[in-house]
Amino acid sequence: MNHFWIILIGALVASSCSIVGCFLVLRKMSMIGDAISHAILPGIVIAFLLSGTRDSIVMIVGATCIGLITVFLIQMFQNSGVQSDASIGVVFTALFAVGVVLISLFTRQVDLDLDCVLYGEIAYAPWDTLDIGGMNLGPKAVWGVESIFIVNILVISLFYKQFKLCSFDSAMAAALGIPVAFFHYLLMSLVSITTVSSFESVGAILVVGMIIVPAATAYLLTDKLNRMIIYSMIIGILCSSIGYYVAYLLDASIAGCMIMIAGLLFFITLFLSPKHGVLLKKWKQHKIAV
């Protein structure tokens, strides 16, 4: 039964991350997920210090607030003339360092360290169950990630046209009266919540990898956004399923194998894609030369 839960959790994380990941890839902001994954550390620590508990809801609220501050600071630095990659690097390393210092100063005597707040292990997720009234409702991770997945679906579906236009042509969106800044921060809120909600259960490598790799792979397969989102979700689910069985056979890290399969599918697509494949481009160049 644990096999089923692990694959289900991985598939839900992959699907949820892929939805927001497609918009990040289109906006050339793929690494913002990695930045948020490190920068939210002080938010988790501050939430713990204020509440005295490691309750997931409290952690998510604190981390999401810092995630939005991270995005705001990155945007502010970019508007001030700092290059995009430099802005991301400065903000997430500085905030991550603040989180490390807070942990070393205030949480030495409690179970709150870098491993438990950032690098969870999906293999252990099925054992942390949700019990209500003596009834076992399954792993908490399933309910948590599933809730975020539903929120992502609802928000993206409700504002699909606005997100699409803001991603492809923000100037036109602004000219049409669409509040571009609002939808930018709404998307970043979804990224923050999606990233944070999955950390303790599945680990940072799986979350960050699933935000970037399936969406980047789907980008090579189609030029239509709606198909890109669907393809990225399918790719993410395949990576979760195949990656788990590869990890089982090799007795290796489950999250690592899932992202390894995602990377393998990306490279295969990069060479064989009917639209953007390297081999196709080489063949066309050869044909023109002949």
TrEMBL record:
The keyword Transport applies. The keyword Transmembrane applies. Pfam families: ABC-3 (PF00950). It is found in: Cell membrane. The chain crosses the membrane at residues 6-26, 31-50, 56-74, 86-106, 141-160, 172-196, 202-221, 228-247, 253-272. Its main location: membrane. Belongs to the ABC-3 integral membrane protein family. It comes from Heyndrickxia vini. It is a multi-pass membrane protein. It comes from the Bacteria. Keywords: Cell membrane, Membrane, Transmembrane, Transmembrane helix, Transport. This is Metal ABC transporter permease.
